[in-house]
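Following the same procedure, backbone shapes were mapped to integers, yielding the entry below.
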Amino acid sequence: MRAVAHPTRLALLEVLARHAPLTATEAAELLGESPTNCAFHLRTLAKYGFVEEAGDAPGRRRPWRLRHLGFRVDHAQGGTEASHASEALARVLWETWLNRAAAVNARRSGFEGPWLQVTSGIENLAYLTPDEARQLHADLRVVLDRYQDRLEDPSRRPAESLPVEMLLFTYPLDAAKPEE
């Protein structure tokens, strides 16, 4: 978890999901980072099994690809090192997602046609037990996984498709109240 709890590494995983295979130089151009920095972070991700070299390439090119799409973070309990690592990763992920959602919202009025209509936010409230919340996540995952093959095989993407991100945050509403 600690290997991924870094903004540049998360950005590399995201860019590889959309544009793999990429060299460190190509990734650096897409991310606005230095090739040296991207190479370092790609090697770190490879060390922990998130990415791998994409095979032979001409010249000195060293392309990288994801070993698998997506990952799941389970929160470790207690004051263990795993617990601290999962908390650090959760902070980076939530901050990344919320900042990106805010940036899109700021530009949303400039969208045209159907993309303006489907770029939206949904808020829902339900009274659930922890088991019911877990089942709801599993049910939604089944729906979202219908499109997983398009991530893995670009030839399956319809001509007018764009990558669409959907965020789902689940939390007890009372946790949002200010601490007293």
